[in-house]
Amino acid sequence: MKKVIKNGTIVTASDEYVADLLIEEGTIAAIGKNLPEDGAEVIDATGLYVFPGGIDPHTHLEMPFGGTVSKDDFATGTKAAAFGGTTTVIDFCLTNKGEPLQAAIDRWHAKSQDKAVIDYSFHLMIGEINDQVLEQLPSVIDDEGITSFKVFMAYKNVFQADDETLFRTLVAAKDLGSLVMVHAENGDVIEYLTKQALANGQTDPIYHAKTRPSEIEGEATGRAAQLTGLADSQLYVVHVSCAEAIEKITEARQKGIQVYGETCPQYLVLDETYLEKPDFEGAKYVWSPPLREKSHQEALWNALKAGHLQTLGSDQCSFDFVGQKDLGKGDFTKIPNGGPIIEDRVSILFSEGVKKGRISLQQFVDLTSTRAAKLFGLFPKKGTISVGADADLVLFDPTIERVISASTHHMAVDYNPFEGMNITGEPVSVLSRGEFVIREKAFVGTEGDGQYIKRQKFGTSDSLPMKTSLQVEV
Ligand code: URP
Ligand code: ZN
Ligand code: ZN
Ligand code: ZN
């Protein structure tokens, strides 16, 4: 039915004003003062922010990894995302060498269909490039609407691709209108450092961080950026964790190479010392790239503020502490990599970023929603509040204070890495295409209501070309 959201403070990546929103048929039909209420359900949003629904461009739901499978699937993961103010997730579809790409995509459709409570889309992993793979890419883009490819520069003998594969993917992406995403760490050097550590009996979780120093993230980021320039293509560096990587991204952007960077809440608020927690608790914080020394946090905040990094992903990849993380007791290399972040992504950026004066409210919306929509071909249907856009909306109370805890979160795992953290601001209601998924902090959605979204090609429609972002950059 029609809905009117009254008197909310509407915030977009460029605006902030008090108005009513009329929602019809799942989209925003009108924005204005004193919109007619006849026949509509009226929702009072006085005192609340109305944000475009969050877009999480980086999730791994029900992903096989390290001999187990990430615990949150498309049901629990998207439900937790919705509680946290996210209305679209883009998940990474993994591929196996030699397998038709469509088979991998069909596998991902099978796990998500009838489960997601919010809209979702896929990125596609490229593990090898040959004539057969190249022949399949146009249909991946045109039929599936998958317009971003992911190349892993780490996880040797598992997901890692070589530089030829990365370069050929960049060249193909330029011609096809796709954005290439990289996990930028030097997997070969990690392999060597890891073998050395184990040979020295260094088996505790902290050695996960010690064997993946920030220099090798910086090196891989710089290499990927240079290859992007050579291919005259476009690159998105996922989960940037350190000053060295920011430096390489900034340097490339200043040269006019189209490189974009994403960071994640965990790198903004947690540091390497968490991996030293006793009783193997450090394993809760094992993911890649690893948490860094505290000084990197300031570099990340500065980069968000200056526009050198453009998005915030969760890198959601959750494993229980008991029964999954403990696979690596006595050998840190066997700890499944990843953490439960999807639910707190938006709130942490609001509390630590906006409330603490590190970024503006408009930057917050850009980082959590708008920029991802533009880069990944969802804009302007998603990622903003405008007439004709999907009514994916978050009614957010900026005054609520709460403590993050596994005892109250909605993710399927037995711990929360932000346990005990005080934060201010919380989504109270969340709508997906005009229907409540969260209402007054209660789940009212339905598994299967989330739709698979085919995305537009990179750089088409209203996707922000690099030049525009360079102009606004300081
Ligand atoms: O440790 C992580 N980040 N796990 C998920 C896979 C990846 O590398 O993004
Ligand atoms: Zn309705
Ligand atoms: Zn990664
Ligand atoms: Zn990831």
TrEMBL record:
> GO cellular component annotations, sorted alphabetically?
cytosol
Pfam families, A to Z: Amidohydro_1 (PF01979)
In its keyword annotation, does this UniProt entry include Metal-binding? Answer: yes
Spans through the membrane: none
What cofactor(s) does the depicted protein rely on? Answer: Zn(2+)
Entry's Gene Ontology molecular function annotations: hydrolase activity, acting on carbon-nitrogen (but not peptide) bonds, in cyclic amides; metal ion binding
Please report the PTM annotation for this entry.
Answer: Carbamylation allows a single lysine to coordinate two divalent metal cations.
The residues covered by the Amidohydrolase-related domain are 49-437
Indicate where the modification N6-carboxylysine is found in the sequence. Answer: 150
Write down the InterPro entries for this protein, in alphabetical order.
Answer: Amidohydro-rel, Hydantoinase/dihydroPyrase, Metal-dep_hydrolase_composite, Metal_Hydrolase, Metallo-dep_Hydrolases_sf
Q: Which keywords accompany this UniProt record?
A: Hydrolase, Metal-binding
The record's similarity note reads: Belongs to the metallo-dependent hydrolases superfamily. Hydantoinase/dihydropyrimidinase family.
Q: Which NCBIfam families match?
A: D-hydantoinase
Q: What is this protein called?
A: Dihydropyrimidinase
Species this protein is from: Halalkalibacter wakoensis JCM 9140
